[in-house]
Each structure stands twice: as structure tokens, then as C-alpha cells.
Amino acid sequence: MDERHLSKRLQAVADWVPYNARVADIGSDHAYLPAALLLNGRIKYAVAGEVAKGPFANEEVEITKLQLQDSLKPRLADGLDAIQPDDHIDTIVIAGMGGSLIEEILDRGQDKLKSVKRLVLQPNIGEFRLRQWLMNHRFQIMHEELLKDDGHRYEIIVAQPSVCPVRYNQRELLFGPLLLEQQGPLFKEKWQSEAGRLQQALTQMAAAKSTDTDRQQQLQAKLDLIEEVIDHDNRK
Ligand code: SAM
Fold first, then answer.
1. What is the superkingdom listed in this entry's lineage (predicted)?
2. 119: closest CA among 136, 142, 100?
3. What are φ and ψ of residue 20, in 5° steps?
4. Where would I find the beta strands (DSSP E) of the chain?
């Protein structure tokens, strides 16, 4: 992968960056995503934020090699601290991390979100809590996507600020409000695999005569919910 050949996952993330957006890609590593958007003429300005020195050095090398110094700014910073007022960022991309880390980054950088019109997020896990954070901070989910790249399933969540309160029920938080509506083939695959994992955990707990009934009930409730949704889908 490089800036001219994004992975299927990163390309799917890039596809949700609006034309002419001013983008902050947080945890950018090689800065491939903003570099690709700039080289394609889709955007004119971006910040590539990185907290770790190694990936930050990768960004600097990449930006110099591509001569993108005027339009792509590498910043060694934690989360949204990479964004400065003069950047006039309207779109934030955070991809390839756990949902709880993405949530933490958004939560700590709330002052930087005031002028943001779109969040393009690609959590590797922990989507429930991330959706909960979005809901609690009035971000409406406008697009959700499940895709498979190199044998791994990925979820993309695109959200925009809402003036009205945003409400999702437990089911929508778990499955994704839009993914739940669509219920595509990867949705079924994902939740069948999760149901198998939960079933296995419950069987092991029973065999070990576990006394952690709270945990067992929690897992069973989640399994019941998944089976209800998958079975409903099978009847369609
Ligand atoms: N975004 C790229 C992608 O999706 O391919 C790179 C993902 S890479 C797995 C995650 C990157 O996020 C790492 O380079 C890591 O250093 C960076 N990162 C982790 N926590 C961060 C934080 N709080 N602020 C900025 N970058 C962070």
C-alpha cells in the first residue's frame, strides 16, 4: 500500500471525505490517506496527526517525497491537539484503532469538534461504545459500512453534528442503526461469528461451573439479541 494505492479499507474511508474538505487525519502513520486525497485533487488541505515518533517520521518522509509540504502538515501531537485554529478543519478521520481509543480522542478534544461537519471513523473493535459517545454528543450517524479487506472485517461509521438530540436504542448501538436496516451478507457473517464466540464462552463457563452469574446473564442476553436479529433476517 502507498498513497497511490490505498488498501480497500483505507480507500473506503477516503471515499467518505467530502470534496474540498479540510481534513485532519488523526493517527495517520504514513499519511497515505491525506496524501492520496491531495494527489487526486479531492481536497486542498490536510493535517496528519501522529502521537508516536516513528510513524510521525514516516509522515515527514512521505510528505517531502511527494512535495506536499504546502498542503499537508505533519503534527506530532496527541489526538485532536494536532489541530490548530488556522487549519479550519471541517472533517476528521480516525481510522485503524480501537473504538475506545477513538472515543477517548474525541472526548478529550471536544473543543476542536465545534466547527467540524463530518467525522469519518473506522474502529477495529468497540463500535457499541463509540456509537454511544456519538449519540451522547449529538452526532448523527449518516453512513455505516461493513467491508472485508485481506480476510478481516472492518466497520466504517460516518457521522455529522445534529442540532437535535440523537437517540439510538440498545439494538441500534450494538448492530449499527443503518447496518441493522440493511442487513447485508457481511452483517450476517459478522454476527453469526460473534454468536458462535459467545456460545463457546457460555459453554466453557458452564463446564467450569462458573459462579459469575452476572457475566453469564450478560453474555446470554447478548447472544439472545443476536440470534433474534439473525433469525429475523433468515425469515425475510
Ligand atoms: N490511520 C492509519 C490507517 O488506518 O491505516 C494508521 C492506523 S495505525 C494502526 C494507528 C496509528 O494511530 C498509529 O500510528 C499510532 O501511533 C496512532 N495513534 C494512536 N493513538 C494516537 C493518538 N492519541 N493520537 C494520535 N495518533 C495516535
1. Bacteria
2. 142
3. 65, 15
4. 22-26, 45-50, 72-76, 91-97, 118-123, 139-149, 152-161
Ligand 1 atom 5 nearest Cα: 96
Q: How far is the CA of 30 from the centre of ligand 1 (A)?
A: 10
155 touches 176 (CB < 8 A): yes
Strand partners, 148: 153
**DSSP secondary structure string for all residues of 54-79:** HHHHHHHHHHHHHT-TTTEEEEE-SG
pTM: 0.95
Residue 56 Cα to ligand 1 middle (Å)? 10
Question: How many whole angstroms separate alpha carbon 22 and alpha carbon 159?
Answer: 16
| Displacement of CA 82 from its chain's centroid (Å) | 18
Dump pLDDT digits (tens) for 139-194. 999 999 999 999 999 999 999 999 999 999 999 999 999 999 999 999 999 999 99
Q: At residue 126, what are phi and psi to the nearest 5 degrees?
A: 75, 35
